[in-house]
Amino acid sequence: MGANGKGRVLIVAGSDSGGGAGIQADIKTVTMLGGYAMTAVTAVTVQNTLGVSAVHKVPPEIVAAQIVATLSDIGADVIKTGMLVDRDCIIAAADALKDFAIPCVVDPVMVAKGGHALLADDAAAALIERFARGAAVLTPNLPEAAVLTGRTITTESDMHAAVPALRALGAKAVLLKGGHLDGPRVVDLLILGSEVVRFDDARIDTRATHGTGCTLASAIATGMAHGLGVEQAVRRARVFVRHAMESAVPLGQGHGPLNHGAR
């Protein structure tokens, strides 16, 4: 944490027993980047690198109570949300946060890397209304952006064409992640008001892709909690994720975890 006491990040998300994604990845990321991580656990997932085999929801009132307990005592500079499970959880979390004017980085987690649904089908509208609208940063991947906008987004041209619809969701900034694009390059678009910043990197040939979205959003949140602007926080977060992917040690038989200890 910085000398000024900043760097506090409250993570509202699900637990990953395999340690590669979810709250475990979030805590590692915030800590490695010099922040202070707090958590409000929304669900306990049974998962490893091969996928999710079960989900146990935390009661919405307990999710809300965790949020109020941490913010009323320790406080936070930025909120980061991940897996919000269902409509009841979304409403409870949003209601608990409404009395605290804290910027929110929203990772609209919908499906696990292995394909298991992590958000109920009827919850997308609530996620848009209660979290996407007004978010400091919204970080959808292409499938999530397709659900949020009702558009097909499978190419870079589709990504650019979706910019107006993404702006219309009401977030102050949107980072549209292009990791699902085909080809040797990965393109991300950062939508900042009327400006669009394009990032273009070579694709990394690795199995260590589990938790990339969680890690990126938490890294962005930590940068912002330390006072970085959105674009600067995104740039640093992308570098952190790439280093964590490139230096990962093979673990498990499926989508392996990143090396969150990478410097």
Question: Would you kindly provide a written description of the structure presented here, covering whatever features stand out?
Answer:
It is a single chain. This protein is an alpha/beta fold. The chain has a single domain, classed as Ribokinase (UDP-N-acetylmuramoyl-L-alanine:D-glutamate ligase). The protein is 36% helix and 22% strand. The protein contains nine helices and nine strands. It has helices at 22-32, 60-73, 87-97, 124-132, 142-149, 156-161, 163-167, 212-225, 230-246; strands at residues 8-16, 36-48, 51-57, 78-81, 104-106, 137-138, 173-176, 185-192, 195-202. The strands form two sheets. A six-stranded mixed beta sheet has the order 3-2-1-4-5-6. Strands 7-8-9 form a three-stranded antiparallel beta sheet. Helix 3 links the parallel strand 4 and strand 5. Helix 1 (22-32) runs parallel beside helix 8 and helix 8 (212-225) crosses helix 9 (230-246). The radius of gyration is 17 Å and the shape is globular. The mean pLDDT is 94.
